[in-house]
Specification:
The protein has 17 helices and 14 strands. It folds into two domains: 286 residues, no CATH class; 158 residues, no CATH class. The protein is an alpha+beta fold. Strands 1, 2, 3, 4 and 5 form a five-stranded antiparallel β-sheet that branches. It is globular and about 70 Å long. Strand 12 and strand 13 form a beta hairpin. The chain starts with 21 loop residues before the first strand and ends with a helix. The structure holds protoporphyrin IX containing FE (HEM).
Length: 496
């Protein structure tokens, strides 16, 4: 098994920093006339970036912050900093510019390549479904309005709001000579601002669901070594490191070494960032109306919960609708209740979507053992399309009584993968936005932003399926970019 150099990998790969629920995403542009200042800043920053090592003895430098030292950190030391660069940013650093040809096309082109006056939106814009209200023409950053020039992003994590403000102040002062922060102006006329995110104590996103439950577990990582997982958890979620970190074997048994840029890419990965605005009032209204019209099932005491759970595939509290794989032959088996909450498959226990609808969010986002010639192969194939999610919420929480429905809120969707086209884009395009996913006739992801077909949502049921009409998507893309999350040695090389 590959031994990953965790002391050279940025901490975000292994942790969502639960002790640091406040975060800022400082987009920046290098000062083009001061390349030396940019390199000096990166060189100094490298030693302060949070590393993924758990402090188990493989730390290269004893004073560098690691996930191990973070566990014990107090006061001003209790924070984490990570850095990501776009292709445009890499291109401004000599070592990066020389290596760019060995980065993937989608990374180099970016999330929102310019539209062509003759042929229209670029292929990537179409495949991501970034059309209509979600078109890059309407984005607040990263889009086509002259706001796409982003060189990189500093990610700052802190335990509370005050600590975050002080961390932002310190880091902006440190980078002042090298780069300018990009402040985002919203159409509502708010003052231009830095993007900030939160994880709430209850771990719920704005629609009201617990999030961040299902994640791949990197083989050989501290979490995989800790044990405690059921055999089914391992079978379903253990994924080879090369799917998420360059330089190691992936699920195709190929070493993702980055061709000519092997040294620069080693221990790095790609980071996808999407600002996804959520229409919480619209979503709640839709769920309430659908529940009011629901004829049966008679045993659904809370019809809104029944509908809401079937849109995502988990109850709002996070309980999966599909039963654990080990009990697929008898879902009523009481032992089933003692599973880890993530050790379920679909093929044997729920092939037709009667427990967890085929078009629900989690079944589209990770079809587990259902997309392939047989369930074992399908499970193996699905591991080639996993992502590590590190999303956080932005904006005030919706409060119907306080009438703050007009407020702007949503998910700062962050995911990590070594192959943007094969992982993030594949999930978004071929599964979430696909009307014919799993032999369905209509409908796209219930909480996705795509408006491919007017928004039918199908819930499998006996004797007939329930078909709901979603008036419009509840999610709108407001910005986004593809980044590279380099290893620590690579940050030093870029500074050299
Ligand atoms: C506003 C937008 C979104 C919301 C509110 C949302 C919410 C959720 C929730 C509540 C879960 C279930 C909890 C969990 O398993 O962690 C989930 C799972 C997941 N979501 Fe999303 N999500 C959003 C967008 C996306 C996008 C754009 C993608 C990928 C392109 C995605 C990929 C996934 C994946 C891979 C899972 C785990 C599925 C599994 O392994 O069972 N989500 N999401």
């Amino acid at each position: 098994m590959d031994k990953v150099e965790w002391d050279d990998v940025q901490g975000l790969v292994l942790s969502g920093y639960p002790r640091l629920p406040y975060s800022a995403y400082v987009l920046f542009r290098f000062h083009p006339e001061r390349p030396d200042a940019a390199r000096a800043w990166l060189g100094a920053l490298a030693g302060r970036l949070m590393r993924a090592s758990d402090g188990g003895g493989d730390d290269g430098e004893t004073d560098a912050p690691t996930l191990g030292t973070l566990k014990r950190a107090k006061g001003a030391d209790l924070h984490a900093i990570n850095l990501a660069l776009t292709a445009r940013g890499l291109g401004q650093l000599p070592a990066g510019a020389a290596a760019l040809k060995d980065f993937s096309v989608e990374f180099v082109e970016g999330m929102a390549p310019p539209t062509d006056p003759v042929s229209g939106p670029a292929r990537r814009t179409n495949l991501l479904g970034d059309l209509g209200d979600s078109s890059p023409a309407t984005w607040e950053w990263g889009g086509w309005n002259g706001n796409g020039d982003i060189d990189g992003m500093l990610m700052l994590f802190a335990p509370d709001g005050l600590a975050l403000q002080s961390l932002i102040g310190d880091e902006l002062a440190t980078m002042a000579q090298a780069a300018d922060p990009v402040r985002i102006a919203s159409p509502g006329g708010d003052d231009p601002r830095l993007m900030t995110g939160r994880v709430y104590d209850d771990r719920k996103e704005h629609f009201g669901y617990t999030d961040g439950i299902s994640q791949p577990i990197i083989e050989g990582s501290p979490r995989a070594r800790r044990g405690g997982a059921t055999e089914d958890d391992k079978r379903i979620h253990h994924v080879k490191p090369g799917e998420f970190v360059f330089g190691y074997h992936n699920e195709r048994r190929v070493r993702t070494n980055g061709a000519g840029a092997a040294e620069l890419k080693r221990n790095g990965t790609y980071l996808v960032f999407r600002q996804l605005e959520q229409d919480v009032a619209g979503f709640r209204d839709f769920v309430a109306r659908a529940a009011a019209e629901l004829q049966g099932p008679e045993d659904a005491t809370d019809k809104e919960e029944w509908i809401a759970a079937r849109l995502v595939g988990r109850t709002r509290a996070g309980k999966p609708l599909a039963c654990p794989a080990a009990h697929a032959h008898d879902p009523s088996d009481p032992v089933a209740r003692h599973s880890s909450g993530n050790d379920f498959l679909f093929y044997f226990g729920d092939r037709f979507g009667l427990q967890c609808p085929i078009g629900s969010h989690i079944r589209r986002a990770n079809p587990r053992d259902t997309k392939g010639p047989d369930p074992d192969t399908a499970l193996r194939l699905s591991k080639m399309h996993r992502i590590i999610r590190r999303s956080r919420m932005y904006g005030e929480r919706y409060d119907a009584d306080a009438r703050n429905g007009e407020g702007r809120r949503g998910v700062l969707f962050v995911c990590l993968n070594a192959d943007i086209a094969g992982q993030f884009e594949m999930i978004q395009h071929s599964w979430l936005n696909n009307r014919h996913f799993g032999d369905l006739y209509v409908g796209t992801d219930p909480i996705g932003h795509s408006q491919a077909d007017g928004g039918a949502i199908v819930i499998q049921r006996r004797p007939t399926n329930l078909v709901l009409q979603r008036p419009k998507p509840f999610v709108r893309v407001r910005g986004g970019a593809y980044f590279f999350l380099p290893g620590i040695a690579a940050v030093r090389a870029l500074a050299g």
